[in-house]
Structure formats: structure tokens, C-alpha cells
Amino acid sequence: MAKKNSFISGLAEAALWLAVAISIPIAVIGSLVYPNVILEQGLSHRIFYFHVPVAWVALYGPILASFFSVIFLISKKSLWDDLAFTSNQISFLFAIGVLFSGPIWAFSAWGVPWDRTDARLQSFFILCLSLVSYFVFRFLILDLKKKAIISSYLSILCALSSVLTWGAIRWIENPGNHPGSVLGKGGMDPDMKITFWFSIFAFHLLFLILFLLTYRTQKILSIRDRIRTEKG
């Protein structure tokens, strides 16, 4: 039975790897050649198909981490702390992608790489600072139990920051230059919609495979830390 489950798990992982290997190149190349561009922005508009999917994953990550953190606070099982840490790591990786791609798009659309009056930009920057704080505290606290507990509460705060970032262009009357929700009224042309949703699909698959790899590494490191603590 164990061998059968292992075979199925390996087969599913191989399928995930194959899906990522196929979907990411299609998403990137497709966004460069398939959809029409917005005339006011020119070719730089195509970064939209990278920037927005990556931003979505960056916002989902802390929320997923907070879910794992709440379970840890209830169960006190290190598994959930490892999962929360993994989710926040991937979220931060995608957040860096947003911080690099956003100014490129903003410069072509607004003429400035960073608009300090834009609510979404400022709230996303606060989210990034929250994640950095999470990692700093996690690094500084040596006691494994205290580290996990404090990290869980910080993870919940990161999730709140993520929700505020999501709502910045929805709840604030004058949020700034940042475009409204892509799911709002009016929508997109069919070619843009197909490219956008396929990119969303591809980058979420990438999130899953990175999550799997990072969790495995974190699990090994956690076992090493617990062994060191027991010996010390």
C-alpha cells in the first residue's frame, strides 16, 4: 500500500513538473505575441500578463500561511509552522517579482516608476515590509517553540496586510493611478482574457511546484534544528 501511494505521489509530481514546463513558456511567449496591446502604453503593456498573476500569488501566499499558522497555534505541531514558513517564502519571492515588474509598467503608463500617492503601491510595499519583518524575527529568535509561536502571529499580521492590499483599489474612494480590478465591469477583449487567465493558471502551477520544493527543504532543516536542540 505504501509503495502504491508513493508511486501515485511520484506520478502526480511528475505531472505537475510537466505542466509547469509546458505552461510557463506558453504563458510568457503567448503574452508577447498573441494579445493586442493598449495603444496608450504600447508593448510595455504586455508586462501586465506577468505582473498581475505574480501579484495574485504574492497576495494569496500570506493568507495561506495565516491559515497554517492558526492551525499551528491550535495543534502546536511543527508541520504547520513549516508550511506557513514555506508559504511566506514563496510569497516574498513573487512579491519581489511584483516590485521589479511594477515600476516598468508604471513608467510607461504614468511616466514615473513609483507613484507615492497610489494606495495599491503603498499598501503592497507595506506587505513586503511585513514579510521582511516576519523573516527577521524568525531569524533572531533561537528558541524553536517561541520562534514558531511568534512567527504564527506575525504571519497573521502579514495576511491582514495582504487583505488590505487587495482592498486598496476597492475600498478607497481615490486610490490613485493604479488600475481597478481586472474583474470589474467592462472586462477585457477575448484575446487579452485568454492570455491573462492562462498566465494565472501557469503561475499558480509554478507556485505549487516551488511550494513543494521549498517545503521539502524546510522540513529537512527543521529536523536538523530539532536534533541540534536535543543534543544541546
UniProtKB/TrEMBL annotation:
Protein's cellular compartments: Membrane
Domain of life: Bacteria
UniProt-listed InterPro entries: Cyt_c_assembly, Cyt_c_biogenesis_CcmC, Cyt_c_biogenesis_CcsA/CcmC
Membrane topology summary: Multi-pass membrane protein
Domain (Cytochrome c assembly protein) ranges: 17-171
Keywords on record: Cytochrome c-type biogenesis, Membrane, Transmembrane, Transmembrane helix
Pfam families: Cytochrom_C_asm
Segments passing through the bilayer: 12-34, 54-74, 90-112, 124-141, 153-172, 194-215
Gene Ontology terms describing biological process: cytochrome complex assembly
Keyword Transmembrane helix assigned: yes
Gene Ontology molecular function, alphabetical: heme binding; heme transmembrane transporter activity
Chief place where the protein resides: membrane
GO cellular component, one term: plasma membrane
Function: Required for the export of heme to the periplasm for the biogenesis of c-type cytochromes.
Protein family according to the UniProt entry: Belongs to the CcmC/CycZ/HelC family.
Protein name (database record): Heme exporter protein C
